[in-house]
Design brief:
7-stranded parallel β-sheet, binds (2R)-2,3-dihydroxypropanoic acid, single chain, Rossmann fold, 12 strands, 2 domains, 325 residues, alpha/beta
Length: 325
């Protein structure tokens, strides 16, 4: 029996590609060429390869037009991401194409990056690093780059899913009190002592640090706008490792410029890899290039999880394990 054809849209970690090549007629993208930003090119390559399945990634253009144009033979699209905002799930359903994602395996790594950004923003680590690298450091002084401690402060987690709850565990180790906002209140065993807020005003007004872990999409678009920023206590810190679309960049830049927001740490951007120009002019913002899940261990685990789903559907004819459409 010939192996099913699997089209990989991006270059993936070696162990993941090795497993894909072992079990499939795998069509790799060794140069990581950016063709998966183009719906017509995705459909063309899927047709040319005779793909049974596609292993895609965050940022790929899997909108309605792509799903409509995919050849009949494609039965599953497995994304190498937990986020699904790059995929039109309704369009996939309409075509009867199974879509899967990679939950759980990246929660700890993404929480680590949120914690990194919280600490960097609070302790002005980006500014300090830039100063030393610019050979501009003239020595220790009693008042140089004084930040604020996180110890004893209140962390507000917007989106108390798996990643948000991992961050809560880490932040408790710093002596932070945990508050959260979520679509629904969680059971006590998942809250683990965190304080739930049923409305934005009471949530945002009680925080020293806001960490955002919201999914992308129209429902959360520009959630952190000028009105909600105004509800934060003066001097609050803002961190976003969810999706850049949930922040109104112009409003956040203005809040950083006025000092109403003391500092911010961002890993994701609206329209990334484009970054709002205003951030480059602010010393009090730490900017990372979407590193949330970027550890060797996590990226392998994400690839294996995507392959587990592909295997279920294409090799065994079973139900997908992490089906989102
Ligand atoms: C995801 O998985 O959605 C991330 O944003 C990419 O690591």
């Amino acid at each position: 029996m010939p192996k099913p054809v699997l089209l990989l849209t991006r270059k993936l970690p070696p162990a993941v590609e090795a497993r894909a090549a072992r079990d499939y007629d795998a069509r790799l993208n060794p140069d990581d060429a950016a063709w998966s930003r183009d719906p017509a090119e995705i459909a063309r390559r899927a047709a040319e390869a005779g793909a049974d399945g596609i292993l895609c990634a965050a940022g790929d253009a899997f909108g309605a037009a792509t799903f409509a144009a995919l050849p009949e033979k494609v039965r599953i699209v497995a994304t190498f991401s937990v986020g699904t905002d790059h995929l039109d799930l309704a369009a996939a359903k309409a075509r009867g194409i199974v879509v899967t994602n990679t939950p759980d395996v990246l929660s700890f790594a993404t929480a680590e990056i949120a914690l990194t950004l919280m600490l960097m923003a609070a302790r002005r680590a980006g500014e300090g690093e830039r100063m030393v690298r610019a050979r501009a450091w003239t020595g220790w002084t009693p008042t140089q780059l004084m930040g604020v401690t996180l110890e004893g402060k209140t962390l507000g987690i917007a989106g108390f899913g798996r990643i948000g709850r991992e961050l809560a565990k880490m932040a408790r180790g710093l002596g932070m009190a945990i508050h959260y906002r979520n679509r629904t209140r969680l059971p006590p065993e998942l809250e683990a002592g965190a304080t739930y807020h049923a409305d934005d005003a009471s949530f945002l007004g009680s925080l020293d640090v806001l960490s955002m872990h919201m999914p992308g999409g129209p429902e959360t678009r520009h959630w952190l706008n000028a009105e909600r920023l105004a509800l934060l206590r003066p001097g609050a810190i803002v961190v976003n490792t969810g999706r850049g679309t949930s922040v109104d960049d112009t409003a956040l830049v203005a809040a950083l410029r006025s000092g109403h927001v003391r500092a911010a740490g961002l890993d994701v951007y609206d329209g990334e890899p484009r970054v709002h120009e205003g951030y480059f002019l602010q010393e009090n913002v730490v900017l990372l290039p979407h590193l949330g899940s970027a550890t060797v261990e996590t990226r392998d685990a994400m690839g294996f999880r995507a392959l587990d789903n592909l295997d279920a559907v294409l090799l065994r004819g079973d139900a997908a394990l992490h089906r989102v459409a």
